[in-house]
Protein 1
Amino acid sequence: VAAGADAIGFVFYPKSPRYVTPERFAELGRLVPPYVSATALFVNATPDEVRAVLDAAPVALLQFHGDETPEECAAIAAVVKRPFVRAFRVKPDTAHAELLECELAYRAASPWFSSLLLDAHVDVYGGAGKVFDWSLIPKELAPRVVLSGGLSVQNATDATVRVRPYAVDISSGVEEAKGIKDARKIAAFVAAVRAADAITHSETHHDHQGNPGSSPGRSS
């Protein structure tokens, strides 16, 4: 929060090194200030498990990172009345049409659907710090997605400028060890994203001067 993050992720997957119990979340979640979103990450959780977390402290957004179908995500979101993000693990052969169809399926399934979070495909749930080919993201989809997967202080500016996602998500890239965050890396990462915002704002301003028909880009 001090570094300027817009959202804080809490992982409720017991097999993750970043796992937070509902009891611990009751302590941490109440420290999140206004206008910073607490995001609760689940992997194949039951509605009761999700409800236990929401009863512990305020949650603004759900993130489903398991094998949940559109219908399962929709059902849980409807019960707890919270918007949700759905993680999509991008493979080297993922087609533009597949990503667009996936977004359409979740949007059709639930009014609570917010966005896809694009991560690299690995054989485990959750982030693995791997980068995927950003060119696989359709340009018309990019402004609506959360970009994740292998982001770091070193590539954050380039990723944000090239993809222009709605937001970026990072975990292992700002850690000193698994599950242990590094405050200096977090501050540097946020600064790198802000630098990308400045670049895209400058480019947009230039486009408006030269082309009255252009529209502003979305920044994260």
Note: The chain is about 35% helix and 20% strand.
Protein 2
Amino acid sequence: AQTSSAVTLIPDSDLATSIGVVDVLRQSPGVAAVQTGQAGGVTSLFVRGGNSTANQVLIDGIPAGEVGGTFDFGTVSSTALSGLELYRGPNSALYGTDAGASVVNLETPRGSATRPVLNYSGDAGNFHTFRDEISLSGAHRRLDYYTAFSRCDTSNALPRDQYHSATSAANLGYNITANTQVRFTLRNADSATGLPSAHDFYGLSADGKQGDQDTYSGLTLQNRLEDGWHNLVRYGISRKRIQERQFSNVG
């Protein structure tokens, strides 16, 4: 209620029927999500006319963008996301110079049930698409936990354009005292997609592949005092690896 810019909140219910976050981002006003090719293709976000490198992307409070502001939303799975917050507008005062056009915040769910909760879901569709997801969450005394894993495979509509993505996530929290909590979060995504190039021009697909391995992890210690002070210390790791290879000359 105290922000000076428009904020779009996307609940986890909107992500339940999506394999990624690209489609739900497209529904936000003033937002253009541009994807190269089909599922798994590089996806850039343009907010209110801003450049795609002017978005500050946070995963559990950890800056996830590359040096220069580049971030590929095409590899982000909807698994282990409690929702998505999109701050539409510049806010470099709070989030740094990378927040020239927007701030995108993704959060991992937290366990709350007093007994372990195990959820499994699976779907299948055309283009040889299969997806399985399993999660385990709960809380015991001062400890809360949430873990999840998913795997998605699709052949897409073009030859040699297969895509697969495996995502694992964890969120562990422990209340040291009533006002002091320590929390560990981890999100890892391994994906690979074909690079068919200009199939419609040449009539055949190039024999190429791009692989992505992204890891985001953080350890947070926070304390709230009775007089309103909020103390927070966080150590985060963001590691992104990309490999692109053409196996043979085609076209």
Note: DSSP finds four helices and 14 strands in the chain.
Protein 3
Amino acid sequence: VVALGTSLPELVVSVIASLNGQPDLAVGNAVGSNLFNITVILGIAALVATLPIRGMVVKLEWPVMFLASVACVLVSRDGVIDRLEAATFLAALVAFVAYSVHLARREVTAEEASGLAAEVAHLTIRSPGKEAALAVAATVGGIALLILGGKALVVGAVTLAEAAGMSERFIGLTVVAAGTSAPELATSVMAALRKQSDIAVANLIGSNVFNILGILGVAGIILPLQVSPDLLHHDMAWMVGTAVLLLVLMVVRKSLSRPDGLILLAAYGGYFVSLLRG
């Protein structure tokens, strides 16, 4: 739930960019967000507090993220993510979410169930009509603001690229990706401060799964996405490589601490330098 919610800005921006005929921005935003999530945001969260690796992160979430990343590379080899491939991405996302819900319902403990019941007890709606209307208004308003913000970000990014002589790919991978990843940054850092390491790590891995399967799936169904050779051979390769780096750190260390955070941040520094040189 957290991962899907924090990835909505990436979805809006990539869909708008796709509709505007800017595939480098659409794909670059998704790929760049994945790189930014794993290296910068998880790196910062690890600097804030040590993040123990527990649960199904290594056994389920990471493998799904890695397979989605590799699948993205494979379907992009012909230079386009067509509607059939995008639909397959979406179907895979639905299957992953359904399986995750199944596991969560099966493995929830009595202590977790009672704790959740206590937390939501005060949220009972007392006046359904009024509170429901407010909830609908807030939802509609939030969606409208999200779309307006997405349009403004795309227009601003394209204008910035033209003014600075940079490519839409570069802006999508850096400025736009960092901007749309702000919810993930806030969520994971707050979770780290509250010692909720499962949320901090799973939020970012889940967001990465959604970025590939959900965002590229939706944008690709609306309009097939052209993938430039630079995105395929450079940026997607870094995306897969940082995923492998994360696995090594999680398996070897059993937790992500300050040294691991510095390693992840250094990896993004290396990527950014290679992007500038390219």
Note: The chain has a mean pLDDT of 86.
